[in-house]
Design goal:
The complex is a heterodimer. Chain A is of the alpha+beta class. Chain A is built from 22 helices and 44 strands. Chain B is of the alpha+beta class. The chains are: A alpha+beta, B alpha+beta. The complex binds zinc ion. Chain A: Its EC number is 6.1.1.20.
């Protein structure tokens, strides 16, 4: 909503307050003012001039040499506009004038002839072209005859206006009218209100002789008023009205259209003018459209309608889309002499569907959708009649022809001073509340501290106590509310164990060198099926798709975080940032339903991807690229830290390197996987070797015990023994380790692998793996022979199981 | 013999003094004090002495031995120290070479902001709640006083999956779920954060996915001034003690009265500048007193209970606090962007 302050001043005295101060006050008490627009910053030295003569420039075909009377003097001005002519009254910028865009007017010579000023178009004076009347777009502006030569153009064209741009919340439909804004500003400034009257002198004839009105659906259209105005003369509107319309962002057309628009902006009531003669039947029938019924609207487009749409008909055919747009066949044109003026109340539901289906959103439909003031419908019709009589020379016929089932009662809200103070934390007196209600111009009854408020119908947003609480609070001023803290003992807040654990996991990963990322949950068709963890795949998930995606790229809810994470890697790689270690904790969305009937399971996962160099720029050691054992180490460290025993099992998963991939098992159950991304995929998205991990955090949370079991710090010394086995190269180190652990239990408390060797001095097809064993007994110092016995036992078992022998 | 001993002593002491390394010193030790050493040899000749002379010479001999031993020890210590010094000098390294790199990761800026806000409210006794990202129409809208056909539904263009299921457009359904869980029987003091989704085309200021964090406080006799007090505490801790707040009326279907909270502009201290578009204030969050319909639907009697709620966008806070100027940067994960904020 654009609010012209010059227009507003007709209804409320805003005194000497600056537009900025007013904007601040309005913003603080209810409606956000988004911006202030000045039509022209400066427009001194621009006056009305009379073109006494206009001849061709002797040396330039397209230029005119004009002698212009500007009151105190006569100026010779060269003008290039095609429409300039002798006898016109025009806007003349005299030398010294500064036009918008800091365009300074000086005396100049054009092709040898002196020019002492400029004849201006409206655009040159600061009016946006889209609001300039069509016939004035391509040339200079020509004033109506009655303006006086020498008069300042600033006031004549409203160039000194400031326009406030309101950012309205949906509840404040009342401020979609100048009167509504006037009520608001009058309340804020505590000023009297000067409302327009709707007095109109009517002709002898009765509109009922010409019109009949019938409404089929009183829910959708509880009021329809048809006014008849005869003997109209179509011509331009008065200057002041055009000015206000342009300031409000509406292009002036002709007096009849302008008046309906003016009243629309003034009262917030959409009106529509039908050419009575072109309506042909004199009948108005409001009904739902028939299936496939057609109507050519004012924009010359044919609309196909259905029973969802309310239409105005002439008894037979649709002539307007109710509340949205008129039809072309009954449009007012230059030959119109008789107008049927519609002032109606269309319910929001009647308009919303039409707007949605046709895409026609207009100043009118917006107001119907948000709800108009039932008490202003008829008055707006009368106001328009008054203006049509005055500015179009029309004769207004007696009596509007009406269908009227409209509820105009005010809502009653009870409130009490103590309750208000209790809710706000204030000590507002009943006298103060009375003052606030008077400023708001709400009717009320008072009994000491009890109030009965009659919420005015212009404020459709007020219906319960809390609404009035807001009214009182905002006029009282939120700045005046005290700062308090909630009473009552405050309990201590804390993260839940799970929330704390999540943070601990993040801290661990970040300490281990990984960078947290956040990617999109919505992904595309190609990515949706990639890199899904086996335990999720097992559930046969059907991808959850949006009904109406914005783009193909964000269509499905992800089943793995990894594809989007890889996208982030590729983004960096493409910018020569190749050493990356990323992780993300987020949800995937799992459902096995083809058509979703219930919420999918939201599975929290920890996913990571590392690529490039892990240890960079070494001058004293070898540069280290990321590898399988890096991600495995990170995972082992994590589960160690969480004290959750997991195992890794070699597995070939799709999209992964078949020989460098393992599932993570917890109690035999898969809870995720690690490994290298399949080299073909790496190539496809231009990544170097990339290693991934993916863990089901829900399973981790379930397995985690918040308070670790207490275990005694061992009192007795531990003894370390090392041993290296020569093994067949296919034997997996972990399998041997498992056998050592089992065979050495309970004396062996830890088994490590510290060397793997294959190559020179090693028989063909063999490798050596060195293990470190740690012996310890909780209750005694182990004797050498006890250790020796166990050690030999282990060697024997390993030799037997793996066809191994000890490397000497 | 006495003379012999004294000559031996001075000779030994002289040699010790002249010794240049531990090896030499050891040789001296052997030469004088060893089994075949000079002193031992002299002492072997003691048998020839008279009974009276023996204790006297014995005492001298002891003194000589002690003196040589002490000199040896002192010298040894000195030489050891010198040797160590020499060794350490040899061990000197080029400290201008770079250190061994340590890989350090870090949190996403949005996580840092969310955790900072969470911690702040945990300190004020709030608990942290969570909820699903795929929501029902009921919890996302109806339970928050946004029935079908409510014009404010247009304020939040929604990604629907089915007629009933959608991607949550805000974190507010977590409020409704929490209140329902508490069955209208006990106070609610919660904060929740998470991803939300809207049908927006991604550009510098819009993202189809973004985050929200919001809080809810429901109890008997909760006042609007309490909301103002809590928000003031929050704003000062988050943005600095010298920041002022102001509330101005706004509209949210789930609160009444509804407000927006601005903080005084840090750049111009409220005088007006380009950052605050000349107003001196910067919009931070939306808030309000919980609408009685919302309380009632969740099982709280609005005649007994009242409450307030507030919500904000961590992206916006990051943009204000750290000058991030394109919302997409939070989701493209450019390593240069992410690393920049690891100490945030
Ligand atoms: Zn500022």
């Amino acid at each position: 909503m654009l609010v012209s302050l010059n227009w507003l001043k007709n209804y409320v005295d805003i005194g000497m307050i600056t537009p900025e101060e007013l904007a601040e006050k309005i913003t603080k008490s209810g409606i956000e003012v988004e911006g202030i627009e000045y039509i022209a910053e400066k427009s001194e030295n621009v006056v009305v001039g009379y073109v006494e003569s206009c001849e061709k420039h002797p040396d330039a075909d397209k230029l005119n040499l004009c002698q212009v009377d500007v009151g105190e003097e006569k100026l010779q001005i060269i003008c290039g506009a095609p429409n300039v002519a002798q006898g016109q009254k025009v806007a003349v910028a005299k030398p010294g004038a500064v036009l918008p865009g800091n365009f300074k007017i000086k005396k100049v010579k054009l092709r040898g002839v002196e020019s002492n000023g400029m004849i201006c178009s409206l655009q040159e004076l600061g009016i946006e072209e889209k609001y300039v009347p069509k016939d004035a777009v391509d040339g200079i502006y020509v004033f109506p005859d009655e303006v006086a030569v020498g008069e300042s153009v600033e006031t004549l064209l409203n160039l000194n206006d400031a326009v406030l741009e309101f950012d309205l919340t949906p509840n404040r439909a009342d401020a979609l009218s100048m009167l509504g804004v006037a009520y608001e500003v009058a309340a804020i400034l505590d000023q009297p209100l000067n409302l327009p009257d709707e007095d109109v002198e009517v002709a002898d004839e009765d509109a009922n002789q010409y019109i009949s009105v019938k409404v089929e659906d009183k829910e959708l259209n509880p009021y329809y008023g048809a006014f008849l105005i005869k003997d109209l003369e179509i011509k331009p509107s008065p200057l002041w009205m055009s000015n206000y319309l342009m300031a409000a962002g509406i292009r002036p057309i002709n007096n009849v259209v302008d008046i309906t628009n003016f009243v629309l902006m003034e009262y917030g009531q959409p009106l529509h003018a039908f050419d009575y003669d072109r309506l042909e039947t004199g009948k108005i029938l409001v009904r739902r459209a028939k299936q496939e019924e057609k109507l050519v609207t004012l924009d010359d487009l044919e609309r196909t309608l259905s029973g969802d749409h309310l239409v105005i008909t002439n008894g037979e055919e649709p002539v307007a889309l109710a509340g949205v747009m008129g039809g072309a066949s009954t449009e007012v044109n230059d030959n119109t002499t008789t107008v049927l003026l519609e002032a109606a109340y269309f319910a929001p539901a009647a308009v919303r569907k039409t707007v949605r289906d046709t895409g026609l959103r207009s100043e009118s439909s917006t107001r119907f959708e948000k709800g108009i003031d039932p008490n202003r419908v008829r008055r707006a019709g009368l106001r328009a009649c008054q203006l049509l009589q005055k500015y179009a020379g029309g004769a207004v016929l007696q009596n509007a022809v009406e269908f009227d089932e409209l509820d105009r009662t005010e809502k009653i809200v009870e409130m009490n001073t103590n309750e208000i103070n209790k809710r706000l934390g204030t000590e507002i007196s009943s006298e103060e509340i009375v003052h606030i209600l008077k400023k708001l111009r709400f009717n009320f009854e008072q009994n000491i501290d009890d109030f009965i408020v009659y919420a005015p119908t212009r404020r459709g947003d007020i219906s319960i106590f809390e609404d009035m609480l807001e009214e009182v609070a905002r006029i009282y001023g939120y700045d005046n509310l005290p700062f308090t803290l909630p009473a009552g003992a405050s309990q201590a807040g804390a993260l839940t164990a799970k929330q704390q654990l999540k943070r601990d996991i993040k801290n661990y990963l970040q300490g281990a060198g990984l960078v947290e990322t956040i990617t999109y949950s919505l992904t595309n068709e190609e990515k949706i099926s990639k890199l899904i963890s086996p335990e999720i795949k097992e559930q046969n998930p059907a991808p959850v798709a949006l009904a109406m995606p914005m783009s193909e790229d964000h269509k499905f809810l992800r089943l793995s975080q990894l594809p989007e994470l890889l996208g982030s890697l590729a983004y960096n790689e493409a910018r020569n940032q190749s050493d990356l270690a990323y992780y993300e904790i987020g949800k995937i969305f799992v459902s096995d339903e083809k058509g979703l009937t219930k919420q999918p399971e939201e599975n929290l996962r920890l996913s990571g991807a590392v690529t490039g160099t892990w240890i960079e720029q070494p001058w004293q050691q070898e540069k280290k690229e990321v590898d399988f054992y890096l991600v495995k180490g990170i995972m082992e460290g994590l589960f160690d830290f969480l004290q959750i025993p997991v195992a890794f099992k070699q597995e070939s998963l799709s999209d992964m390197h078949p020989g460098r991939c393992a599932t993570i098992l917890l109690d035999e159950k898969v809870i995720g996987f690690i490994g290298q991304l399949h080299p073909l995929l790496e190539k496809q998205i231009d990544l170097q070797e990339t290693y991934l991990f993916d863990v089901n955090l829900e399973e981790v949370f379930a397995a985690y015990s918040n308070i670790p079991a207490y275990s005694q710090i061992p009192k007795y010394p531990s003894i370390a023994r090392d041993i290296a086995f020569i093994l067949d190269e296919e034997v997996q180190a972990g399998d041997v380790k498992a056998v050592i652990e089992k065979s050495g239990a309970p004396l062996v408390i830890q088994v490590g692998i510290f060397d793997v060797y294959q190559g020179e001095n090693m028989p063909e097809g063999k490798k050596s793996i060195a293990y470190s064993l740690l012996y310890q007994h909780p209750e005694k110092t182990l004797k050498d022979d006890e250790i020796e016995e166990s050690f030999n036992q282990i060697i024997e078992t390993v030799n037997e199981k793996f066809n191994a022998y000890v490397r000497s | 013999m006495k003379e012999q001993l004294e000559a031996l002593q001075s000779e030994a002491l002289e040699k010790i003094k002249a010794a240049e390394n531990l090896k030499e010193l050891q040789e001296i030790k052997v030469a004088y004090l060893g089994k075949k050493g000079s002193l031992t040899k002299v002492l072997k000749g003691m048998g020839k002495l008279t009974k009276e002379e023996r204790p006297v010479v014995g005492e001298i001999a002891n003194r000589v031995r002690e003196s040589i031993t002490e000199a040896l020890e002192n010298k040894s210590e000195l030489l050891e120290k010198k040797a160590l010094e020499e060794q350490l000098e040899k061990e000197a390294i080029d400290i201008t070479l770079p250190g061994r790199p340590v890989n350090v990761g870090g949190p996403h800026l949005l996580t840092s902001i969310i955790e900072e806000i969470e911690d702040l409210f945990i300190g004020m006794g709030f608990e942290v709640r969570e909820g699903p990202e795929v929501e029902t129409d009921y919890f996302n809208f109806e339970a928050l006083n946004l029935p079908q056909g409510h014009p404010a539904r247009d304020m939040q263009d929604t990604f629907y999956i089915t007629n009933e299921l959608l991607l949550r457009t805000h974190t507010s359904p977590v409020q409704a779920r929490t209140m329902r869980e508490y069955k209208g029987e006990k106070p609610v003091k919660m904060i929740c954060s998470g991803k939300v989704y809207r049908r927006d085309t991604d550009d510098a200021t819009h993202s189809h996915q973004f985050t929200q964090i919001e809080g809810l406080f429901v109890d008997k006799n909760v006042r609007m001034s309490d909301l103002k007090g809590i928000l003031d505490t929050f704003a000062k801790k988050m943005f600095g003690q010298e920041r002022k707040i102001r509330l101005r009326p706004s509209y949210f279907p789930f609160t009444e009265p509804s407000v927006e909270m601005d903080i005084s502009c840090k750049v111009c201290n409220g005088d007006g500048c380009s950052v605050c578009k000349g107003t001196g204030w910067i919009e931070i969050l939306g808030a309000g007193m919980v609408h009685p319909n919302v309380l009632e639907m969740a099982g709280y009697d609005p005649d007994i209970y009242s409450g307030f709620a507030f919500g904000m966008g961590p992206e916006r806070i990051a943009m204000l606090k750290y000058g991030v100027n394109d919302i997409r940067q939070f989701y493209t994960n450019d390593i240069r962007f992410l690393k920049q904020y690891h100490k945030a």
